[in-house]
Specification:
By secondary structure, the protein is mainly β. It has a single domain, classed as Beta Barrel (Maltoporin, Chain A), CATH 2.40.170.20.
Amino acid sequence: MISKSYLTILLLSLCSGLFAQFGSSGGGGFGGIGSRGGGGAPANQSAVESDTIAVQYFFQDNIELLLSYKDTLLDNYYEQYDPARQRVLDYAQLGNLGTPHMAQFYQPRWHKDLDIGFHQFDLYKIDHQDLRFYKTEKPFSDLYFAQGPGQQNTFFKAKFTRDFSEGLNFSIDYARMNNDGQFKSQNAINTNLALGFWYQSENKKYNSFITYTSNTHDITDNGGVQIDNLNDANQERVFNIPVFLRDASTYHVSRSVAYSHQYNLAGKPDSVEARPQRNYKIHHDLVYNTNKYKYADGTPPDDTIYYEHLLLDTRGLRYYFEDNSLENTFSISTSKSGSKTQRDFLKLGIAHQIHFLRQEPNDSTVNHILLQGQWNFAPSERMNVKTHFMYNLLANFGDYRIGGDLYLDLKKVGNFEASLVNQLYSPSLVQQQMYISEQLLWQNNFDKTLETNLSATYRIPKIGFSATGQYHLINKLIYFDTLAFPRQSDELINVLQLAIQQNFKIGSIHLDNTLALQTSTSDVVRLPELYSKHNLYYEGKVFRDRMLLRLGLDLRMVNAYKAKYYQPLIGQFHLQDSQTIPFYPAVDAYTSFKVQHFRFFVRAENLTRLLDTSTLYYQVAGYAQPYFFIKFGLSWQLLN
């Protein structure tokens, strides 16, 4: 049940803006992992003016679709440095930047071929297909740096591109998160690197790409706080709070080298004629991937309170997995160019994958053949439709995914988006089989999962309103139970969700609100029923209108519920019945400013802790969020 105090705070937050005139536009969509780049538009964006720079970019799988690189103003995407909070609905993490995360609202995941089953770092990854290639006349850089308490709590990001002679372009995307955290044994280091070369022939008919990506996650796992041993004395200093593990760590690295080239068989690339020209292209992609995952605890606790039945060897625990794969894809595409938007795009292809797997102590080889296609078309300037399909042959035979997205521009009335996905997918490797210290922990033969997802969003940007409804129908869902073992549900599970955003403005005062409701027909899908966040801030020009300033308070609230627990040994979030995380109104204060292409921010996080020193803040069961702390950051975009 939702507490009266929660409803009181929620109503006050919403009602405080009812008298105001409507203001800035609202975002939309839940921002699931299945979309490119982690998905989703930044939440609650607000801008006093449009602001772009003379840079365009594209992705190598659709070179004709050019997007503008936006020089965003002081929006939440910039101020929220944590990737888990850069979506309409926040993800939950373990209490330190870069630690494993999970969605607080159910979202479908893109299932394609072999799924290993480790997704706790997905928000921090970059894939070779996510690397942006730019069209710009001058070198372009986008730099970002954030610092928390102590020199070992930093976050650095950098994007850079430049053109060379004879049609060669270079792009790089780099990010590194290094955070000690506040609790014992909680260090998290995440490093991402993507770089690529793009060559285009003089007649623009031939394009080739060489890319390299690397994602490394080096995490010290403390197993969460010992809730039964908490008292007033050890809570006075956060580092005195007892944790379960002292010598446990997770190391996960994925790297890829990709070569892609495409040739235009007919048509006039980048035509500027009034009548669009039809292009026909053949594509070939060759990708080599290596994926390694290791968990080790050299000194597990002597008792069995923490690992319990997972403690197969008291001398130490180890899990190791390695996947080396080679993917070869041939496809053909056709599209029309020469208009402001891509009129249509059709792509059909076939891919072969071979995986060389090592899960201590076993080795195996898996082959996949994938039939895949994509069709994007625009019946009019106000309508855009995107469809895709995938069908799996050989291993995971019969797995498929088919879906489509519809966008309607209703002009003064707003805009409408809808999405439908239906997919049948095999269990992940971790769900089927797990070895700990070379001993078999479980062996399963689960059925495939059938899932249908429907989403619809209606926006009225002029009044800052958006509403998103999602419906998920899941048959044979696989989950991890209270013993951290995989189980398959025989229920037909329904999940219904509604998220509403309403942003208010009176003069330079803004109030951005997000309210989300969620219900499930099954107890195995344990997620909050109610979530809301509210951002009250002043935004305006100062110092002779040369600086844009924002000063505000950020409030997030989730109703009390039995959140999942994270078991680092198996790298999974699972059900638990021992803790109901309490309702906790988390409040942050911040200020930020922008001068031309330079920005700076300061955030004071978890102000609630200063008012209530007896309650710990949880997003995941057992893993407390940090006490009050201050973080600052800056970014600078250079075009020269």
